[in-house]
Amino acid sequence: FAERWWYAPSAGAELLLGVALGRLSQRLNPRAVVAVAVTLCLIQVPSLIERSSAWRSTESVLRGSLQVHPNNVTALTILGINLFEQGRLAEAERALLAAHRLAPGWGRPIAFLARTAASRGDLPTARMWMSRWRGASNDQPVEDILWWVRLLGQTGYAPEAWGTLEWMRQRGLWSDQIPGVVAEVRARLLGR
To answer: What average pLDDT does range 160-180 have in this prediction?
Structure first.
């Protein structure tokens, strides 16, 4: 279960307090012990509400994390991807550029900067980002490469798409999705 559904501030301390109150109720007036327990629970309600609201969405969790750790490259990247998927391209680009400045060799922010540019219709910028991406670290997910190959094939760059597929083969970056992409690129090369 996600923490956001089961979050209770200081749960461990509250459990210990509950055990202590249970033992005290054997020695003291049980109503007084219940009154103390209810009071302590009510004191925790504002904290519970605050933490629960922080978990209302992926974006709010990431933004909260970035308030505490503004140079968290992973949070910036995931936030950028999340915003990209929502179609909020300008915000996505800002987060992804911040991540790229902090970790210029990490391929994931670069790939989504290319996707963002392509979504805006700026193919030259997307091509620039993908050329940087090919020189980035070896953590490139196959899905990013296949997205690029498909875009190249769809925009009249089928020979480059074919070259990228060969580059993938040479690096052992093969997956079960690739035969379908190969067929798409081959059809573009043959003009079908």
So the answer is: 77
Burial 32-46 (b: 16+ CB within 10 A, else e): ebeeebeeeeeeeee
Question: What is the mean pLDDT of the segment spanning 115-131?
Answer: 91
Place of tokens 């899905």: 143
The C-alpha atoms of residue 109 and residue 73 are separated, in whole angstroms, by 9
The pair phi, psi for residue 71, each rounded to 5°, is -100, 25
**Residue 11 binned pLDDT confidence (cut-offs 50, 70, 90):** low
